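User: What would this chain look like folded?
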Amino acid sequence: ARILEQGQMRAKNEMFIIMRGSARAQRSGAYDEEETLGHFGIGEQFGASALLDDSQGRPSTISVTANEVTGCLVLDKWAIGPSFATVANPIRNWAGGGAAPARHTFLSPE
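Assistant: Here's the prediction, encoded as structure tokens.
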């Protein structure tokens, strides 16, 4: 299953942390061929740059696909609210996360 789809408008400013399973990041080229950019395992994150975006959302620049049954902790900038300032620098440096409202998303492979 796709967690993120390249070019799809992301309605929220969210980042994802893999809590269970694994996923891979891909980008479509000029001829619709998919290039694998990397792999994510337990504890690894993607999408943190969306938390630093001041807009209400933007298109995803990559696709992320679950390789197996995968659980993601999803952190939403707007749910974090005023406390976002306290976690912004650790996110920029990826030195850690910080306590924040979140939800779990579980996805199965395609």
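Strands lie at 2-4, 9-10, 14-20, 23-28, 34-40, 45-46, 58-59, 63-66, 70-76, 102-107. If you want, I can go into more detail on any region.
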